Amino acid sequence: MRLAALVACLLAATDAMALPKSLRAVLGGSGSAIMGEAAIVDAVCKLAGTETPVVAYLGTATYDFEKFREGQVKEFRRRGCEVVAVDVARTAPPPADVAAALERCDAVLVSGGNTLFAVDRWTAQGVDAALEKAMRRGAVLCGGSAGAICWFDAGHSDSMDPDWYADVMIAGGGAADPAYKVAPGEKPWPYVRCPCLGFLPGLVCPHHDRTQSNGVLRAEDFAGMLLRHPGEQGVCIDHFAALVVDGEDYAVLALDGKPGTLVAGGTEPDFSGAGTPAIWLKSVEGGRVVAKAAPAAGKLADILRKPTAVVEDARIARAREENPSNVERP
């Protein structure tokens, strides 16, 4: 009996990790910088099968600030799409209301921002289960930065940037300050490996070709992170690139006229700004990080793989203490 129960549990776990053929997504290397781009919205509408999808917007990672929401949904609104705000960052609405909003949407748009806060908040309120249900019925998952990495096993995250902490922003400071502008190198905060929803396998690095306020190139820091987490597959998305998923197939969406790291004939990322936006697959082989540009299109199974081992980041506990998600805020 015990052996049979164990086998049943293992089979259930295997089924739970299988990628559903209904999976559809548009996942970008940045949030506000690309979500208003026509090519990104075109991709979402095409996957949704309608020119005017109903879009459920989760701004949890930016604490449900209206200004961040409007910046990301303006192109959808311009096209006549209905946008339903699902606000769970500061209060806990009835689960039935959240489920109803996610059940009727054609697409789920997640904002950029503080990934750890958002995922923890969703998990505590059962939003994660409602999101998985939406994914399995075919709703398009979309977003950039935090809105992209949240769907994977984990992400290279700036969740310990204090300018993006809830209490700081709600008080009108940090990234919520209208005059907010920080030059690279001004803030000594660390990137962390943020555990996410696990709908897709992979450790994702957004803004792959960018340097943020801590002065460290994302790609450079990610290499060190991957060496600390060698059992995982790295998926690195340039600032102006997006991964488009349609069931078992994928395509790399590179925004026209935007800089990136892929140069003709190059086998390594080029950070001079002379290339085009790309997605790079990185892994640890022989004690070093090896990078390979993802082909422009192909089978999703060829670029993503389940981790062989997962090592949690010890700094996550401190990040949760500094920016708790279990507090109700006005």
UniProtKB/TrEMBL annotation:
Pfam families linked to this entry: Peptidase_S51 (PF03575)
Keywords from the UniProt entry: Hydrolase, Protease, Serine protease, Signal
InterPro entries in the cross-refs: Class_I_gatase-like, Peptidase_S51
SUPFAM superfamilies linked: Class I glutamine amidotransferase-like
Coiled coil: none
Protein family per UniProt: Belongs to the peptidase S51 family.
PANTHER family: ALPHA-ASPARTYL DIPEPTIDASE (PTHR20842:SF0), PROTEASE S51 ALPHA-ASPARTYL DIPEPTIDASE (PTHR20842)
The protein, known as: S51 family peptidase
